[in-house]
Each structure stands twice: as C-alpha cells, then as structure tokens.
Amino acid sequence: MALVMKRERSAVIDTLLKSDEPSIRWKVMTRVVGEDPESRKVRALREEIRKSARARALIAGRDQKFVREAYVYANWRGAHWTLAMLAEIGYPANDESLMPMREQVLDCWLGHAFYMELESKSAVPKHRSTEGVPIIQGRYRRCASQHGNALYSITRLGLADKKSDGLAERLMHWQWPDGGWNCDRKPSAHVSSFNESLLPMLGLAVHAEHASDAAARAVALKASEVFLSRRLFKSKTDGKVISPHWLRPKYPRYWHYDMLGGLVAMAEMGLIKDPRCADAIDQLERKELPKGGWAALGRFYRVSASMDMSTRFGSISQVDWGGAGSARMNEWVSADALYVLHAAGRV
Q1: pTM of the model
Q2: Which helix (H) or strand (E) holds 117?
Q3: How many other C-beta atoms can be found within 10 angstroms of the C-beta atom of residue 180?
C-alpha cells in the first residue's frame, strides 16, 4: 500500500510540475521538490507568474471604480484581496506598481478608529465600530484576520516598512489571553476564534522573520497553541471534531479556516512536526483521491469577469481556482497538501 501511495504521489507531483499554471509549478518546485527559491530557474518562473493571465486579472479587478475608492475589502476583488492572492500565487516581490494598493490597504486598516477603544459591559453593535475597538470582558473584539492578512501579504510581497509595522503592533495589542483573537461581541465569548486567529498568527510570523522581531515571534507561537492544543480540528474537552466543514478543504480559503489551512500554517512556521499535528495529517492522507491528488470540497467564490453594480456585494472572483468536486483533483489544494506532507516527512 505504501509503495502504491508513493507511486501515485510521484505521478501527481510530475503532473503539477507540468501544469499550465506557473504558480502551481512554483508552489511544487519550491515547497515539495526542494528547488532553491532564489535559483535562476525559480526567479524566471516568478517572472512568468508576473506576466500570467491570472496575475493580470487579479490586478485588473481592483481598477473598478467602486473597488478602488471605497471597497478595499470587497469580496474578493478589493485591494486587500488582490494583494493577498498575489502573495498566495508567488507574485514577485518588490514590485513598486503595487504601492498604490498597499497604501490604500494600510490607510484603511491603520485608520484612526483602530487606535480608539470602546469599553462595554454588553454586546456592541457593529455600526459603532467607528467609535473604536470594543473591549468586552477585558478582551478586544476585533476582526484581526483583516490586519493579519494585510501584514502577511504586504510582507510576502516585499512591501513592508515602518508603516506596515503598525499592523503588527495592533495585532500584538489586541491578542487574547489564550493566544488568539476574536471579533465576537457577545460578552460570553471567551475563547479565540480559529477564523480570526490563523491569519494574524501567520502575519506576525512572517513579520518576525522579516524584521527580526522576537516579540512578534513569541506572540505568533503563543497563537499557535490555540490550534495545536486542539490538534487543529478537535475539541479540547471531548476530542470531537469542532466543525465538519473544517475537514473539507477549499481553495482559496480567504479568511475562512479549514484543517488544510491550519496544516499549511504549521508548515510555514516550522511547527508541522509537532506531534499534535499528526491527527490532522492522518485525516489529510485519508482524503487523498484513489488516483492521487486532493479535491476541493466546496468553494467560497463565484467567477465573474465583469463587475457591475448587481454583483457589487457578491463574493466574486475574477479568476477560477479550479472549482470544486469530490471526485476530481484540484491543483491548488493538491499543491498545498503535498507541501504539508513533504514538510512532515511523509512524501
């Protein structure tokens, strides 16, 4: 059985290395095969990514007037998401043409309201967010995934500086006692949210590496315990699966959590060989398709090349990410799964 599995995975790796999508080849080449990320071959591949139809479409999507001016966080076409997906697909670093988007994102997430605090003994309606970040039961109630995702993508794209360091400062300021973050405004909420904690953890981890910030690294490691103490998908109290949706990999995940996203994060942080990741890795292996590869079991986007007012508030993507289907391999999910298994020593 092990020999058959090894042969099937080798075939999938070969298939992905021949993908028409340069970002897939980049992911597998650098994260699975072990090619030096700074090699001439990889640098040439990243230039291919810069010129790819996917990158051009992602950048063009933010030129729509309402996205450019008012909807930084428009799903999934605002400047916030454009930078996030460019970082995800391996777009080359230090591209100054992205600076206007970077400034738009930072102006949004480092606005005055995020430095104000609103103490309350009861739930605070969302419309009062302009008054400051709520503090309820001694915990900051903030959607930290937004700041975390911005910090991660800006740093990965080589656009980080003293201004973007402000995102890290805010995240560290808002961290909950158990290590994560949560935007739930109910006073009874006292445990960090997986959805709101994954991206801040990753953002602080890459920021710590870039800026040699030991404090940020310590905060990111503390956040990792939110996931590791629950084996990435299980309740601490009874060991049951917290959410069945977390066992169904999707791509892109955007701000949503699933088990594969948790495993990718642990691999990026060098924590994938922690014994508490083993159950999740076992689950991932069980989801391997009979002929190799992994399926996307659902998706969070709809594809549309146009952006009229009727789609203004929809979760629209200007590119397709391979769709979903339980019986067919999704290249993006498969590249992530192979990265995890390689980092864990199982490929």
Answers
A1: 0.94
A2: strand 117-120
A3: 24
